[in-house]
Recover the amino acids of this structure.
């Protein structure tokens, strides 16, 4: 594999140009405070708020671009990254998964025609399996001691049984609607996938390394606060023993004295999940007042 030794200081991130991961990836980066100016050819986006640029490419190309040093990070499906890793077989330049991103969920599954019986992996012996993920499928079969013929297709895998190319398929499944439309049923899951942030296995040098660490910290904060809420309320200090156990799960609350009120306190609590009306009502019954629940947009620990 040819590797390019970058001499640049700007961090470069590859994302899907079109497809189900492209738009959520752009939205997530914007939540991290990044703004971009897109080029006329719509293949490159120059970072305006930070020295971070985007490459808009095919999903399948992203792991290779990271391995070659063309880009530093990539938002890619775990299935694509895992297939690249399975083919690379321990190459030191193979990128690794840094962080799951919580969107683009799907699974790489075996699916058989509705009339075909399936009694576990051993029943696949001698059959033909059509897939766009031959390395992942081969590893899965090998790990179960099954010998089957892998038919590699680049697209339209779901119609392979109807065309006589294979007895069953191994393909990505989201809702299952495509399988049902082709009279197929899912029988086994090989890999559960979602969008992930991929990075080189070795630490990035210099300014790009610092930018990558900063971005990762922002990302961890943004993903961690996705369902979090800030709860604020007032109470009497004498009510704390009854009130504090009613607070939702989260960080230890802050309790501050109210100016001019010797027994009054203000409570601020970071909650991990949404706060229900029932929880608020129980706190009010315990003496809380001025209850306020706020969503979190930005937070750094």
């Amino acid at each position: 594999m040819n590797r390019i030794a970058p001499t640049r200081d700007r961090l470069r991130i590859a994302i899907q140009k079109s497809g189900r991961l492209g738009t959520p990836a752009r939205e997530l980066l914007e939540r991290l405070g990044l703004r971009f100016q897109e080029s006329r050819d719509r293949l490159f986006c120059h970072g305006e708020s930070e020295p971070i640029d985007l490459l808009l490419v095919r999903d399948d190309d992203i792991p290779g671009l990271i391995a070659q040093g063309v880009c530093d990070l990539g938002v890619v499906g775990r299935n694509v990254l895992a297939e690249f890793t399975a083919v690379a077989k321990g190459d030191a330049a193979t990128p690794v998964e840094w962080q799951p991103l919580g969107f683009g969920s799907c699974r790489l599954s075996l699916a058989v025609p509705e009339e075909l019986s399936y009694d576990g992996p051993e029943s696949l012996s001698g059959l033909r399996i059509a897939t766009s993920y031959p390395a992942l499928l081969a590893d899965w079969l090998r790990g179960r001691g099954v010998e089957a013929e892998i038919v590699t297709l680049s697209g339209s895998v779901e119609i392979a049984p109807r065309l006589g190319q294979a007895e069953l398929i191994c393909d990505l499944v989201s809702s299952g609607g495509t399988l049902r439309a082709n009279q197929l049923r899912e029988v086994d899951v090989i890999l559960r996938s979602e969008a992930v942030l991929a990075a080189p296995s070795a630490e990035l040098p210099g300014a790009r390394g610092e930018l990558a660490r900063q971005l990762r910290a922002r990302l961890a904060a943004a993903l961690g606060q996705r369902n979090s809420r800030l709860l604020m309320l007032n109470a009497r200090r004498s009510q704390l023993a009854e009130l504090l156990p009613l607070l939702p799960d989260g960080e230890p609350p802050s309790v501050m004295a109210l100016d001019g009120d010797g027994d009054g306190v203000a409570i601020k609590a970071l909650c991990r999940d949404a706060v229900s009306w029932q929880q608020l009502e129980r706190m009010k019954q315990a003496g809380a007042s001025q209850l306020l629940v706020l969503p979190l947009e930005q937070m750094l620990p």
Observations:
- The mean pLDDT is 91.
- Residues 258 and 265 are 5 Å apart (CA to CA).
- The longest strand covers residues 184-193.
